[in-house]
Amino acid sequence: MHDVGVCSWSLKPDGPAQLVERLRACGPAGRAVQVALDPIREARWDEHATRGALAAAGVRVLSGMMGTRGEDYSTLDTIRATGGVRLDEHWPANLGAASGNARLARAWGLDLVTFHAGFLPHDAADPLRAVMLDRVRQMVCAFADEGVRVAFETGQEDAPTLLGVLEELAAACPKGFAPGVNFDPANMILYGMGDPVAALSLLAPHVRQVHVKDAVPTAVAGTWGREVVVGTGAVDWARFLAEVDRRLPDVALVIEREAGADRSADILAAADVLARHLPGRVRVREARA
Known about the structure:
Blueprint (H helix, E strand, L loop, with lengths): L1 E6 L8 H9 L7 E5 L1 H4 L5 H10 L3 E6 L10 H7 L8 H17 L4 E4 L11 H18 L4 E5 L5 H12 L9 E4 L1 H6 L5 H8 L3 E6 L1 E3 L9 E3 L8 H11 L4 E4 L7 H15 L4 E2 L6
Parallel strand pairs: 1-2, 1-10, 1-11, 2-3, 3-4, 4-5, 5-6, 6-7, 7-10
Antiparallel strand pairs: 8-9
């Protein structure tokens, strides 16, 4: 049975009260959430108020998410150069943020935090690969010190490259805390990194959470694809969700929407796709009066 939830940042809330209000507009899927940790860690959101608002509304927190400093998503070239742990000048701050988010996740009783590691080089001889893998290893260890696991977002490299990274890191990380995958099928399309179903089949043993998002590929090499409402893009949801259910029968399905003018409506549409393809296999919490 799959828990279903919503990414907090998809709703662009200005604080915990607005987050709860917008989650309610998402119907049953809004009764669980993956929460962005950075605003809480940085005290832009009051931690106790946030936890209290979610608890009072009966919203379960499924997992956490962290960003990394210096990322520039303006173009594929800029995010390739700045994504994840790549930038030297921001590495100390990003490692510190990982430690802070790990402590926050432990305090909230979360066992999973996801983030983008950045474009991980495929070539083992590339000196940047060793640097980036050592940095993500340090971040994994910072979370492991607090008993929290991590998962890397898919899309910024192809599935075989990510699999090789995961296998290499497994031997270097604390036992039981080897990094996993937050599988986002739309990212595979947005970045032009291969077929989502084939990638899922390869990475399934490492997948710890799935983002439910859709996209159409670019027609111009070197540019972004375009995110669209779930069910209207290039993801073959019948095949993809059948593979998820077969290989990952208990993994959480978290709806993410990063474009569009009516995100609550788009999230409701995504939830309908899940219900249609996984009848009786998705779990939502009862609403609290």
